[in-house]
From TrEMBL:
It comes from Halopseudomonas pachastrellae. It comes from the Bacteria. Belongs to the TmoD/XamoD family. GO terms for molecular function: monooxygenase activity. InterPro entries: MOase_MmoB_DmpM (IPR003454), mOase_MmoB_DmpM_sf (IPR036889). The keyword Oxidoreductase applies. Keywords: Monooxygenase, Oxidoreductase. This is Monooxygenase.
Amino acid sequence: MSQLAFIVFQDNDNARYLVEAMAEDNPHAEVQYHPAMIRIQAEKRLVINRATVEEKIGREWDVQEMLLDVISIGGNVDEDDDHFILEWKN
């Protein structure tokens, strides 16, 4: 059975940078655009790297800033100062 890790953001300027960074760090991920939201999903694991987001937005970024734009997540969370990972472990 498929286990998709996913995150859904509000479709706003902040989230667009996050989606761009996630697409770079997760080339296997599928990005779906819906009215007012963006869903990113991948088999078993997704990662958001602080360094990649900082490249995209051109400033320092705290991983927890992302939570202001999150609508929903699917997967177990592993978070620290440098990354936010969603994954399903066997």
